[in-house]
Design brief:
Number of strands: 5
Distance between the termini: 24 Å
Helix content: 55-70%
Strand order of the largest sheet: 2-3-1-4-5
Radius of gyration: 16 Å
CATH superfamily: P-loop containing nucleotide triphosphate hydrolases
Structural class: alpha/beta
CATH class: Alpha Beta
Oligomer: single chain
Shape: globular
Bound molecules: thymidine-5'-diphosphate
Number of helices: 8
Length: about 210
């Protein structure tokens, strides 16, 4: 039996990582065999690629190089972490995945969407998330919360507006897989909403188990 892949998407500062942690602890507590991982950086090689991608000293990076580095990182991550975990029926929670490339490199940088979709299919071996949670937030709010100032975060407001629009378009096209939740609901309120979607989706895959 195959496992279950849940991905989280959204702008920087949307509260994604907090929600990933809360969901991970919840699923552990109700007895799921669950792992938590992230892109970029879910493997040793990926962590090195992440450094190249985010370093401010690489300001000259072309958007094609950026796209292919994220793709390489993803190929390694799928090969080393996601595919084996799904093959052993685990629930995998991944902080960013294929939709980040569509939203950031496609809608944000203007790279061809079909090309990115093809790359996504190649790098993931056709793995598509079973459920994707997009945490929607107004760009200013999110960016004010992070202040990390890495290479990508150094972009302007219009870039983040385009990414946000991209995420909403992805959700519009794939309403069964992609659920948009409001990022300004508060940590606990948001967790409850996400839990609702996850419980429902997991019931379909693991009928013997039920949430709290
Ligand atoms: P990170 O510090 O992990 O940000 P966050 O905590 O918001 O996830 O940095 C990841 C950055 O990489 C973020 O700006 C989004 C970007 N990114 C892409 O542009 N394309 C991708 O395919 C992925 C996975 C991430």
């Amino acid at each position: 039996m195959r496992g279950f892949l849940i991905t989280f998407e959204g702008l920087e500062g949307s509260g994604k990582s907090t929600q990933v942690n809360l969901l991970y602890r919840y699923l552990l507590s109700v007895g799921y065999d669950v792992i938590q991982t992230q892109e970029p950086g879910g493997t040793k090689i990926g962590a090195k690629i992440r450094k190249i991608l985010l370093s401010r000293s690489n300001a000259c990076m072309s958007s094609m190089t950026e796209l292919l580095l994220f793709a390489s990182e993803r190929a390694q991550h799928v090969y080393e972490v996601i595919k084996p975990a799904l093959a052993s029926s685990k629930v995998v929670i991944c902080d960013r995945f294929i939709d980040s490339s569509i939203a950031y490199q496609g809608y944000g940088r203007g790279q061809d969407l079909e090309m990115i979709q093809t790359l996504n299919r190649i790098t993931t071996n056709n793995i598509i998330p079973d459920l994707t949670i997009v945490i929607d937030i107004e760009p200013n709010k999110g960016l004010l919360r992070t202040g990390k100032g890495d290479r990508i975060e150094h972009e302007d407001y219009a870039f983040y507006q385009a990414i946000r629009t991209g995420y909403l378009k992805i959700a519009e096209k794939e309403p069964n897989r992609v659920k948009v939740v409001e990022g300004d609901k508060g940590m606990e309120g948001l967790h409850q909403v996400i839990r609702g979607y996850v419980d429902e989706a997991l019931r379909g895959r693991f009928p013997g188990k039920s949430g709290r």
